Amino acid sequence: MRITPLSIKRQEFKRNIRGYDPDEVNTFLEIIADEFDQLIKQNEEFSSSVNQMQKKLQDYQLIEKGLQQTLLAAQETSSRSMESSKRQAVLLIKEAEIKAKQLIDKAKADAKAIHDAVLELREQKQTIIMRLRAVITAHMQMMNALTNSGQTELADESKKEKTNSKIESVIDRLI
Q1: DSSP 8-state code for residue 21
Q2: Cα 163 to chain center, whole Å?
């Protein structure tokens, strides 16, 4: 049976002729004494536990202080590191911009050289086509002159037109 303040106040003892039953009172007193003894032991344990907790609290407060100092130092280091990283990033960006400009300038120069080469090749092509046209025309005229020396001029004119159209078709195929 667990003793509470209320149960002590409400405890009733049987009355004998001489008063309360001594055995019952003694039993109750023993129970109260045991409970009181347990309460004293618990109180001592709690006091000891509180003392230990206070010591741990002091230790934890010291640790907390150390951690706060460490955190502040880490924040300062982090700030310095971030500033250094930003400076390095700016330098890297500037270097990249310079290299990009150089690459663009080189690409423009290469493009201009290619464009100039293309124009020169077109001119050479036109020159070759004109020369080829002249050579083919000359050869065709020589062939016509050798094979048709006896035909009339009217036939020569129609052959010349046919020959010129053939020459143009050959040149178009070459182009």
Answers
A1: -
A2: 71
In which residue are the tokens 């035909």 written? 151
pTM, entire model = 0.41
Phi then psi for residue 122, to 5 deg, are -65, -45
* Helix (H) / strand (E) containing 175: none
Q: ∠ CA 101-107-110 to the nearest 5 degrees?
A: 145
Q: Taking the mean position of all CA atoms in its chain, how far away is CA 8?
A: 74
Both tokens of 101, joined, read: 């400009």
pLDDT tens-digit readout, 84-128: 999 999 999 999 999 999 999 999 999 999 999 999 999 998 999
Measured CA to CA in angstroms, residue 156 lies from 14, 88, 146, 163, 168 at distances of: 163, 84, 12, 10, 18
Tell me the residue range of the domain where 102 lies: 5-174
Could you tell me the end-to-end alpha-carbon distance of the chain, in angstroms, rounded to an integer? 120
Q: How many domains is the chain partitioned into structurally?
A: 1
| Strand segments (E) across the chain | none
DSSP 110: H
